[in-house]
Amino acid sequence: MLTACNSAFVAPKPSDQVQAVSVDSTFQQGSPVAATPGYLCGAWSSNNAPSTQGTITIYARLTKNIAGVSGAPATAIIHFRNGDVTLPSHPSSDAGGFVNFTLPLLGRQPAGIPATIDVSFTLDQGTLDCTSAFFTPG
Questions:
Q1: Does some domain include residue 110?
Q2: What is the mean pLDDT of each run of 10 residues along the chain (138 residues)?
Q3: Domain count, the chain
Q4: CA distances from 63 to 5, 16, 40, 41, 68 (A)
Q5: Is 79 exposed, middle or buried (0-12, 13-18, 19+ CB in 10 A)?
Q6: Is 46 in contact with 53 (CB distance < 8 Å)?
Q7: Could you tell me the CATH number of the domain that includes residue 67?
Q8: What pTM value is reported for the model?
Q9: Torsion sign, CA atoms 59, 69, 120, 102
Q10: Which residues contact 27 (CB under 8 A, 6 or more apart)?
């Protein structure tokens, strides 16, 4: 017969297991919350799976400290498979920080091939690039 341990095993007493822990006084003296960047923007499409001949709307929003920023002109560039197209309209953001662009696809993107849209806002400090929108025609 084979055994892993015998009956002579004695468990240590809790008093034998005491360990001391010391914490450096500089631990967590900084702020645990990351600072939020002043301006943020993002873009999205009204339909992520339009037909190749469809028309979609591209939306974008500009915020500063979570509040919408008005009056900032926006530009949208669509990255089609065979080349980039800058949309001719340059709307300014409304009181909520929103803009929208109408995008007729006109068969410029093949079915099943993703396309991205880059939207940027012009501010006094320079240009702010948003997170990209995308769509994949079906």
A1: yes
A2: 58 65 68 76 98 98 97 99 97 99 98 98 97 98
A3: 1
A4: 67, 59, 5, 6, 4
A5: middle
A6: no
A7: 2.60.40.1930
A8: 0.74
A9: positive
A10: none
